[in-house]
Amino acid sequence: MPRLVALDLPGGTTFVEALQRTWDAGDAVLPVDQRLPPAAATVLVETMRAAVIIDSDGEHVLDHGEPTEAGDALVVATSGSTGMPKGVVLTHDAVAASAEATSARLQVDDDDHWLACLPLAHIGGLSVVTRALHRGVGLTVLPRFDADEVTAAATRGATLTSLVATALQRIDPRIFRCIVLGGSRPPADRPANTVATYGMTETGSGVVYDGVALDGVEIRIAADQEILIRCPMMLRGYRDGTTPIDVDGWLHTGDLGLWLDDDAGGRRLHVEGRAGDLIITGGENVWPETVEAALATHPTVVDAGVAGSPDPVWGQRVGAWIVVADPAAPPTLAELREHVSATLPAYMAPRELFVVERLPRTALGKLQRAMLRR
Question: Which superfamily does CATH assign the domain made up of 278-373 to?
């Protein structure tokens, strides 16, 4: 029976070789986040019921492992904000479909060379490796993002990479032919050689590039504005046997969005945000990311997060959690309300303010909004 093999290895040649050997043996791979403390890594491996773990000390058979199904390639832990993440099961067919569609959209050829520098325990980093292996193009894998190492890799011939917005700000983007941006919302002034993607672990990485679905990807907006996706890159199911796919094959993303007309006469998907993140205050809808973008333009604000809290009068009130450049001189709530109201309706301005040292974010820069309210 096919086994689930946990790879507890840093990014690099050793990881790639272990991945390929595991696949050649007919087994599936669970990448283990290298930043997890040992106890947390053990819990992850046990929860996903891996049969084998490969680490720097070699290969170890584990008790209580459960087989995977024939054709399974990956089990990737989601970046859930609470509780133990679910394991997304991706088949070899799904991995191949993702590699083909993304490579076609990016016009990848034999002269291209991928650089993987995001965490391999997340689909944004791991998919760089899998699409390079599938297409047989050059591949460099770094153990972590390091601006100097990324620049050096580009100097040595890397032409393509996947980054998050915070990493993009630390390099000269012109050193790459194309940069795929995932994770959090991309900057408004992003360089011309970047592509903003929308997708999730369940879709095997991004399936919408700059608002346009990849070949083979179907998008439907439900009556309640939820984004539904149907495509060959999707997960087979979760490791616990559950699935977010309905009987008609649609993945219910939990994100809300709409179609917007573009200058070329086509339509592009606009993602508003997670359904549970919408703040309704005084009967008005407030999307947190819109307010966060306005807050980020204040000269003293380094980072911003917005979430709703119960309010007896307004139903919900808008709260802002900010990181400031000078903790000794933070802006006042009144100052930030005035700043936001200069570009957005007044009802979107925050009604409460919290100055914090840092915001809770995933490795790919996604704000863990539920943790703001704790």
Answer: ANL, C-terminal domain (3.30.300.30)
